[in-house]
Amino acid sequence: MHWTGACRTMGIRYLAGMNLEDHCGDVIRKAREIGGVTLTAAAKASGLTEEELTVLEETGQAAKRVDYVGLGMALRVDGRKLGELAAGWRPASVDLAQWRELRMITTRTPDFSVNCYLVWDEVTREAALFDTGISAEPILELAQKEQLQMRHVFITHSHYDHVDALPALRQAFPKIKVHSGSRHAPVDQRNKVAEIIHLGGLRITHRETPGHAEDGVTYIVGNWQEDAPHVAIVGDTIFAGSMGNGNGFWDLARSKVREQILTLPENTLICPGHGPLTTVGDEKAHNPLV
Questions:
Q1: Which among 69, 32, 34, 73 has a CA at the least distance from the CA of 50?
Q2: What integer is the mean pLDDT of 16-42?
Q3: Which of 86, 120, 139 is the last residue of a domain?
Q4: Whether residue 59 is found in the same domain as residue 179
Q5: Is the full-model pTM beyond 0.85?
Q6: Which of 58, 66, 85, 216 could, after both became Cys, cross-link 209 (CB 3.0–4.6 A)?
Q7: Of 275, 278, 243, which Cα lies nearest the Cα of 258?
């Protein structure tokens, strides 16, 4: 198991470069699924053969020029954004020094990586974890290093890679309170309508964002020191430049992104379950799927 987290250099925290969760081929495939567009129709609009489009969807690479404007029209998405993604677009770098007590922790297997997030109040040292990733080790190390009082763990959705380390964390912190959007969770763990959780001076609220998962939830952390922007921990509801799989509920998934996440202020930091950090403004300007 490998893990990485925020780094500190000359007092400024930053995150090393991270690949997008989805390359442009993944996004094209998802757009076809959303719109019910056949491979044949999409290939014709893109100027590729079906075989060439299949390769593009699988690898993110095309052997010849692609008509992304025409492809976007066929898929009913912004072809300009598709072209930017194919050309190497990445969200703007994020300086985490704005959010003094926020850490992104990425745990990895040979096949994938997943992000979780640790937030705490600078004065009280009360801490909350958002998802768990697949290993408790880096969370326990950071909590000990920062002398944190682990009060809450908020689950964005119950897919295994986001909750795998929950048993180990509950064993380490027996009094930690679990928060979930799942109707199958014990009653005392279910999120309540309009609920506000105080973490020292920080305020945590939630918005339901089902689609990728039935129990999908986005958590909003606000009231940061020095008026830093809100932070939205979104699970797999939205990625930088893409979205999580709609799993048969694409219309619901996309509508929840638009209604519950993209209506936040443009400087809101988006913390996804996979891939790099981004912002509401960046996704409105560059994400082809939303």
A1: 32
A2: 93
A3: 86
A4: no
A5: yes
A6: 216
A7: 243
